[in-house]
Amino acid sequence: MEGEKPERVLHSGPGAEGRSLGANWTETAREQKVAERKKKSEKDSENEITPLNVWAENPNALEAVVWRADTVKLLPTPEQADLLLRLAKATRALINMEHARRRLLYERTGIIDCSVKGAYWSQDYAGFKEVLGSKNFDEALKVAVESWKSFKELLELKERGRLPAGLDPKPPKQLKRLLIAVKHDNYRVIEGEKAIWLKYCNVKLKFQGELRWWRQRIQQGRLIIAYDDVKGAWYAHIASEVKLKRDKREPLKCGIDLGQERLAAAGTESGVGRL
């Protein structure tokens, strides 16, 4: 797609925290990393079952602070839709550029880069900053970082034997979906007008739908604006940190998820799970 050049990182992309992708990283460095992971795994004494929801870690808790998201449909004007498309293309190109750089680093050295600093020191990223603004540029980088952190955590779980048999973690793939990541302090929800104001672009987007979690928010989180190819519409996902409360007398709930490879997976609020 025009304007997207993730392949550039294969030749001139920034290093990870100033590290080179060249001969400085040898097979010995890779083996040392593997040995460090195994050593950490041996010392790990966590339980075998990972808690499935907020109440699992403390079944007797009556309150918990968590993140939730409201999803509303945007109603942009044709001019606003063109702007959203331009921002989304730039965000996708930036995230894919970072995925390509980090994947190359991982394949050559076994190191998983979970930093955001490298992009700030290269002119290769100047165009993205101009289009997205520095705050949203930083937020898009964090989206990429979160994918790699998740991949790293899955690898560590696999080394400790805590992943289901046959589940082999893979590095993050190239992003295909059009989305825009907006930092928590770079937008404002105007509930009375049913609108979201994007501060950097100085654009007010109308929306339809109801807000639930945003009204209960302790603090406002990231805004993700994404295009739904099937419905042909833009949607806003507004993250809010909220406090959940429950009655201690309520019985534990059990969730069941039907799958394709596995017939079903079930888990209770106490953290007990079965495949």
Question: Please, could you describe this protein's structure?
Answer:
This protein has 275 residues and is α+β, with helices and mostly antiparallel strands. The chain has 2 domains: 6-45 and 63-245, no CATH class; 49-62 and 250-275, no CATH class. Helix content is 31%, strand content 24%. It is built from 5 helices and 10 strands. The chain has helices at residues 9-12, 27-43, 78-109, 126-132, 134-159, and strands spanning 63-74, 179-182, 187-190, 195-198, 203-208, 219-228, 233-245, 254-258, 264-268, 273-274. Helix 3 packs across helix 5 (134-159) and helix 4 packs across helix 5 (134-159). 20% of the residues are buried.
Structural features:
single chain; 275 residues; alpha+beta; three-stranded antiparallel beta sheet; 5 helices; globular
Break the fold down into its secondary structure elements and pairings.
Layout: H1 9-12, H2 27-43, E1 63-74, H3 78-109, H4 126-132, H5 134-159, E2 179-182, E3 187-190, E4 195-198, E5 203-208, E6 219-228, E7 233-245, E8 254-258, E9 264-268, E10 273-274
Antiparallel strand pairs: 1-5, 1-7, 2-6, 3-4, 4-5, 6-7, 8-9, 9-10
Helix pairs in contact: 3-5, 4-5
Walk across the major sheet and give the strand order: 2-6-7-1-5-4-3
**How many structurally independent domains?**
2
Rg is 21 Å
Order of helices and strands: HHEHHHEEEEEEEEE
Query: What is the residue-mean pLDDT, rounded to a whole number?
Result: 80
Q: Any low-confidence stretches, pLDDT <50, length ≥5?
A: 1-26, 40-52
Spatial separation of the terminal alpha carbons: 41 Å
β-strand number = 10
The helix/strand class is alpha+beta
* Global shape: globular
* Helix content bin: 25-40%
The amount of beta strand, in percent, is: 15-25%
Treating each run of at least 4 consecutive H or I residues as one helix, how many helices? 5
